[in-house]
Amino acid sequence: MVDLSGLFRxxxxxxxKLTAAKDISGLIRALHSxxxxxxxxxxxxxxxxxxxxxxxLIRALKKKDMDNRLVIIKALTEIRDPKSxxxxxxxxxxxxxxxxxxxxxxxxxxxxxxxxxxxxxCLHDHDKYVRYGAARSLxxxxxxxxxxxxxxxxxxxxxxxxxxxxxxxxxxxxxxxMLHDRHSNVRIKxxxxxxxxxxxxxxxxxxxSLADEDSEVRWxxxxxxxxxxxxxxxxxxxxxxxxxLKKNPLIAGFLNFMLPGLGYAYLAKWWxxxxxxxxxxxxxxxxxxxxxxxxxETLFPIYFLLAVHAYYITVKMPVDPP
Amino acid sequence: xxxxxxxxxxxxxxxxxxLDHRKNxxxxxxxxxxxxxxxxxxxxxxRPLVYPKIHVRxxxxxxxxxxxxxxxxxxxxxxxLTDEISxxxxxxxxxxxxxxxxxxxxxxxxxxxxxxxxxRYGSAKALEQLGWSPQTDQDRAYYYLALQAWxxxxxxxxxxxxxxxxxLKDQHPSIRARITEMLGSIGDVEAKGSCExxxxxxxxxxxxxxxxxxxxxxxxxxxxxxxxxxxxxTGHNAFGxxxxxxFFLGVGYDYLGRWWGLLVxxxxxxxxxxxxxxxxxxxxxxxxxxxxALFAMQTFFxxxxxxxxxx
Lengths: 322, 311
Fold this sequence. Notes:
The complex is a heterodimer.
Chain A: H1 15-20, H2 24-31, H3 36-48, H4 51-60, H5 66-79, H6 85-91, H7 97-109, H8 116-122, H9 128-141, H10 148-157, H11 161-167, H12 172-178, H13 184-197, H14 203-209, H15 215-227, H16 235-240, H17 249-258, H18 262-266, H19 272-289, H20 292-316
Helix pairs in contact in A: 2-3, 3-5, 5-7, 6-7, 7-9, 8-9, 9-10, 10-11, 10-12, 12-13, 13-15, 14-15, 17-20, 19-20
Chain B: H1 3-8, H2 12-18, H3 24-36, H4 42-46, H5 54-67, H6 73-82, H7 86-99, H8 105-111, H9 117-129, H10 137-146, H11 150-156, H12 161-166, H13 173-186, H14 192-198, H15 204-216, H16 224-229, H17 238-247, H18 251-255, H19 261-310
């Protein structure tokens, strides 16, 4: 491939000139520069421009564009103006986890007591990056957890497992929250610590986790549950609730009867759509050359057979091992 | 749902119906309630053992494990040996352990060798409950393998080789990789053949541990590449792709995983239809043959090149 990036190389941005001209939107554009120094110079310049620039930045933060938000939050972190705190707190609720993460870090850089409460909420986030960012910021702000339960959330966020284990039963809510993490290794960690607590109170979250989508998490859950004193015989039911990738034979059959071939496509057979196409083509062709009665009399029995076949192969599909 | 009232009324049929409830905890409490009813519930609970819904079978077996009636031992053994769902076999072995009837020992020794790790683990625990302890080296190996006590298995040394080889049938790649690794660390020449076979495993991690273990078991390294190459390829058949593209232009590309394959096929079908209207069927075929033949050749070569690169 020919490298075309040279054609689009960005012109070196003259931050001083932009500052002198009080070109706030120009400086905000400079925040998107791929050059780290330009980014940081632009952020500083915006900080120096004071209130007016701050208002524009905060307004720009309202645009629902992830890249834009990330760049502006970074600039706000460098400017460290307490006025940006309410907007950063707002960003902690963003749907994008990277924006939440960055906002949590930013609030640690601009210590303000009003961000404590929202950051504590972030310790309950399902994303480990956000939890880590919030925990670090809370420590920076100097927050001391008032209860063992909150202490557990803080140290789960900091990934300090030894402390979490020592907290004992009060750590169960924080560990239960970890079971919703996207990463299976985080869930395995939570399951293992729950097992080490050897407490009957850890049983309900462990039962939930028996139906985890990941087979290793499920296996580790069995071993952990046993340590917490649950009888093994109660576990197979929980395990049988795991997500099964088995398809519904009725849907496969119905699809193949109404739209021959798409039943196979539903079963992820690559040639399903091909049969569908051939059927459309064949039907048009037969209607033109063979007449209506002949077409319907021939095709319907075939559709019926295809439907039965799709139904049958779905029923016979092996179930994934637990 | 008033489980206490149902228990007091001995409403066995009602409780069995609740085993089919969509809520997990209702199923659980129904099974629990049935378990407290004692011998009287045993006979009616044997019928759901063949019910098509998995959680009903599990619930019934759970209750039978609590009732501990000797009458349920034979049917449970039958379920253990015939049911194809791992969770059902697992709960069956655990119930047999709870019931504590020594008739269950021989079938539990069979399920100690099950292809599923949960069933094996449950069997070891159930056998413990029945007061069984492994007598022969082979039983010991299966027993510790079921408990996944890998260090103990390693200490058993060469006497564990046979059991390890047998359990390569496990469905989980992580377990097969672990077993292969264990064969390597025991380093028994007897395991040579099996290690070589594992070189053909569909899972890449398992194959890699087979490479390392084969060498430790005394397979000369020069033999490995050829053995490894005998594995079932998950890649595509170049000839098949070419034939598909010759007859159904575009489907060959779809088969090779190109997202635009079906787009080409759609266009091909549409063009065929138009050609037919314009020139008739015969001319359409004459026009298409050289074109699709060229595409078929091109497809053949790209598929060949891809499979060579994938290895």
